[in-house]
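Q: Convert this sequence to structure tokens.
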Amino acid sequence: GAPQTTNADLLSRYLRELAGDPENLDALKGAGNAALEIGDTDAALALFTRAEKVAPRDGEVKAGIARALLKAENPRDALRMFDDAVRLGVPEAKIAGDRGLAYDLRGEPRRAQRDYQIALAARPDDEITRRYALSLAISGDREQALKQLQPQIYRRDAAAWRAQAFVLAMTGDPREAGKITHAMMPD
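A:
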């Protein structure tokens, strides 16, 4: 088949477009998203901030800034930007999975859980399901947390096993958590 286009390739392509047209909004947004995907939070923030100067009322740009702020561990400002994004027409379901994480980081698990439910009702997502399970564990709802992870556990998903160990440890079963962690670790 065709070779996979990586996020790094996409970022290069968008940056080349921006060299010729520094205010190209689509290229700024595309480059910002690609930078986020490869883990370059600073570049993403810079690109989305430039995009915001070009289009101050663009909800997708606000959502991009919010995701970059979240990755930079600034949940308070991220939440403000997520609110702006929704006010400017970005569907709540599109940002709810990330906004939920921001709420969890702010110590508001109930609001986080409501957001995870909104996101998951719109479309299934393993990572958001794990965030939801961990959030439930934080609020002490062990049974619901473990139930959320079950389908991924059946598929032997390593990230789900780690999440399950965390849930068990947080909800008072450190021995069981230790066994799972031990089983997960390479020799």
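The radius of gyration is 19 Å.
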